[in-house]
Amino acid sequence: MHFTIRVEWRRQDGTTATEELVTQNQDACKSAGDVGLPLAEAKRIVAWLQAIVVNEQLEQYCETARRCPACGEYRPMKDNRQRRFYTVLGKLTVKAPRFEGCRACKDQPCVSPVSELLRDRVSPELRYLQAKFAAQLPYRQAADLLRELLPASGGLNHATTRNRTLAVGRSLDRELCREIEHPQVPAEPAMEMVVGIDGAFVKAITSGIRQKQSLEILTGRVESTPRGGHAFAVVRNLEDGQAKQRVQAILRRCGRGPDTKVRILSDGEDGLRGVVGWFGKRCEHRLDWFHISRRIDSIGQQLLYLPESPVYGWRLAFHSKNLHRIKWQLWNHGVEMADWEMKTFRTGLAEDAWDSPKLLQRFQSVELKLDELRSYLYANESAVRGYAKAFRQQKRVSTAHVESTVNQLINWRMCKKQQMRWSKLGAHCLLQVKTAAINGQLQPFIATHSIAIAA
Fold first, then answer.
1. Splitting the chain (455 residues) into consecutive groups of 10 residues, what average pLDDT does each group show?
2. Total domain count for the chain?
3. DSSP string of 30-68?
4. Which domain holds residue 102?
């Protein structure tokens, strides 16, 4: 079979043009691999089509821009240069004519319409794909994947992919810093807001003995009733020291106003609560039930290692029942009622230890964890309350959704799945790209913002 592919287009003045792209001979099918166009051939065809469309568009654009905006006269041609333009469907070399100032107006400067239009020399679509894939995969893997699927677009090596991705991250961060410098009150403040916040660590690049071995990252999710969830992540020890201001600017973007009632869910660290910022009585802190439950479950794990005896099963069930009562009291009432159950639990351990004096260390390890739990709860006594009522009202009582966000943002890309070391700026910029992608804001941002060239 013989295929001929031609392109025909009609210009604004009514004239038509035709160009033959390719002539393809297809032999008879002998296997599944012979069906359809090969990927390499399809890439070439699409790249040729892209070149025709782009050159025709830019020629029409330059023809329009050649007229003086003041008097409408044609401006003289100064020279005709070339510019490279990287697109998803191929790397193009386009004409970029320059025009002198209008001789009638005498004060118009020399202009290059193509250079002004293609300021970044990278199409937003290609930049978006590079940033999106690099946010999910290592830079080399992202570059390899794009080279496998796209025509020869140029700039698809791992270094350029990294630079373009971090350039997007820097632009996103600059937008956030402008919000810090010029805070704006949201037009429609949210009535209520739930902020789940947690910390995570990634390995840092070290060049000296005294430098820190890891970077702390503040990550979390903001939820307001009409707006849904919004993930965020900020490197805590940035050079400018504005991690707290960045988080508060993100909350304002999500609808936080002076009268917004904010409920903070955290593991009890004072620094995490302070990052969100307190606005008097409109801010409430609740200790994360996920961390409480995990500590109690850890005590339950220790019970399995108590000494063997003829009544081991009965004693294990007895201690587990007392431990469950502690959890039930915390869920329904608070620390004071749970403290009574802790004393009952401790008494049962003492009676059990009396029969096994040689293995007293096993009971002491359980008591040590119980003391840690008690200290942890009393240090956050005012925040350990109202779980049952909030759960019945279908409100958040745990940061389990934040742990999922940590996996999405950090574990799968920056530490556990991909063992790497990061600089502060590199980690922060990549996190801005990842959060924008998760929140569905990456593509609109790249499409509407000019980003400095980073090749």
1. 83 83 75 79 88 90 86 85 90 90 78 88 92 91 90 84 93 92 83 87 76 83 75 88 88 85 84 70 83 91 81 85 93 90 89 75 87 91 88 87 85 78 90 92 90 60
2. 2
3. -SGGGSS--HHHHHHHHHHHHHHHHHHHHHHHHHHHTB-
4. 2-117
